[in-house]
Design brief:
With 223 residues, this protein is mainly α. It contains ten helices and three strands; from the N terminus they run H-H-H-H-H-H-E-E-H-E-H-H-H. The N terminus is likely disordered. It is found in: Mitochondrion matrix.
């Protein structure tokens, strides 16, 4: 990165990286690519509005606060404070990363099956699309408490993998897999509509999966 580049060419080696931190942009809540009610009847407008404008917004705000405190701890050389801020960075940073992917993984024109290279890769790595759907659903249903079910790409092995992450742990930062499709199984993602019946929500969400988005993520991850 530019910050890294200049840090080796500055006589005051610490000034450049800190300067980069000072000038960094604050994280912002991304706009949804569709209206709150666009995913009905599968996901209600009320859920989408709360999920996006309240839950995701909270992760963004708390991430900015944690980064600000981290910046101060770096400037002071306070390693203890830096370490103590790691859980907040992981949780809120993960929440921001995960939801930013999630909104684009969904579409009012979604559902059905993927096409092309992604479908071929799914058949190769899971036997069939139906088998893949069953496995990702089962992994997502099985998340204890709060978390996510993911389809990720293992770049080293060149294959697709299914994984579950607890809480807001981001897939790539905690497993190394590149995220292609995430299914949020926190109760706030479905409770108002599906109550405690997570399998009903998971059955419904397949009707709004944006396979074009998942396919473009897959193509980008192979480069």
């Amino acid at each position: 990165s530019l910050c890294f580049f200049f840090s080796f060419r500055s006589s005051a080696k610490l000034i450049a990286p800190l300067g980069c931190l000072v000038s960094r942009q604050k994280h912002t809540l991304p706009d949804l690519p569709y209206d709150y009610g666009a995913l009905e009847p599968h996901i209600s407008a009320e859920i989408m509005q709360l999920h996006h404008s309240k839950h995701h917004a909270t992760y963004v705000n708390n991430l900015n606060v944690a980064e600000e405190k981290y910046k101060e701890a770096l400037a002071k050389g306070d390693v203890t404070a830096q370490v103590s801020l790691q859980p907040a960075l992981k949780f809120n940073g993960g929440g921001h990363i995960n939801h930013t992917i999630f909104w684009t993984n969904l579409s009012p024109n979604g559902g059905g099956e993927p096409k092309g290279e992604l479908l071929e890769a799914i058949k190769r790595d899971f036997g069939s699309f139906a088998n893949f759907k069953e496995k990702l659903t089962a992994v997502s249903v099985g998340v204890q408490g709060s978390g996510w079910g993911w389809l990720g790409y293992n770049k080293e092995q060149g294959r697709l993998q299914i994984a579950a992450c607890a809480n807001q742990d981001p897939l790539q930062g905690t497993t190394g897999l590149i995220p292609l499709l995430g299914i949020d199984v926190w109760e706030h993602a479905y409770y108002l509509q599906y109550k405690n019946v997570r399998p009903d929500y998971l059955k419904a969400i397949w009707n709004v999966i944006n396979w074009e988005n998942v396919s473009s993520r897959y193509a980008a991850s192979k480069k």
